[in-house]
Amino acid sequence: MTTKTRIHAWGASRLVIIGIAATLAGLTALGSTPAGAAPGPVSLGVGVGSPTGLSLGVKASHRSAFEAALGVDTFDNRGGYLHLVYKRELVRLSSGPTARIPMYVGVGGYIFDVDRGFDNDLDIGVRVPLGVNFDFVRSPIQLFVEGALGIDVIGTGERDRRDVWFGLYAGIRFWL
Q1: Structural domain count of the chain
Q2: Which of 6, 14, 91, 123 would be 112's cystine partner, CB 3.0–4.6 Å?
Q3: Nearest one of 67, 57, 54 to 21, comparing CA atoms
Q4: Could you list the residue range(s) of the whole structural domain that residue 78 is in?
Q5: Are 170 and 48 in contact (CB under 8 A)?
């Protein structure tokens, strides 16, 4: 790895860290819901893993949602990453007075860019996550953890090809 590449990677990582800190600060200020009020259908937060960056959730129904994430792939430490997934609850593992814990499966797509420029060297594929949400009843907070299977469908440019991969993703979202 050349010095120029290391500096470029550190600069992108620094931007992600600053973005995560700013998002958490803003969400802490905006995310408080009055007692007894239901949170809105949109959530915003941060995730760590594949990708590390911003996470956006939108409820489609009582048991389904869309989720988008934008960030860098920290496991490969080399590329920009974007995904959009539709998730559906499989089973509710727990439902009590303080938290609901649904297990979900999803399907969607992703774009992975080796050089973080989203211009060439792209992998475009299918993403299938299986995960668990921790939805707190008395606060507008959701914790999540998932494993996802990725299958490259289209690859462009010169790069080392990953046909099938597995990634971990966990984080926190605040319902707005």
Answers
A1: 1
A2: 123
A3: 54
A4: 3-175
A5: yes
Between the CA atoms of 33, 88, 99 and 96, what dihedral angle is there, to the nearest 10 degrees?
A: 130
Compute the 3-state secondary structure of the chain and give helix, strand, coil in percent, each to the nearest 5.
Answer: 15, 55, 25
Listed residue (130, 127, 59) closest to 90, CA to CA: 130
Q: Which amino acid is at 29?
A: A
Using CA atoms, how far apart are residues 5 and 3, in angstroms rounded to an integer? 5
For 90, the token pair is 């499989």
Q: Of 81, 80, 150, 154, which is closest to residue 115 (Cα–Cα)?
A: 80
Among 50, 74, 46, residue whose Cα is nearest residue 165: 50
Counting other chains too, the contacts that 10-15 makes at CB distance below 8 Å and 24 or more residues apart are: 12/72, 12/80, 12/116, 13/72
Instruction: Give counts: helices (H), strands (E), the chain.
Output: 1, 8
The Cα–Cα gap between 117 and 46 comes to 21
Q: What is the CATH number of the domain that holds 122?
A: 2.40.160
Kindly report, residue by residue over 14-67, the tens digit of the pLDDT. 544 555 555 555 544 444 445 445 578 999 999 999 889 999 999 999 999 999
- Confidence (pLDDT) at 2: 37
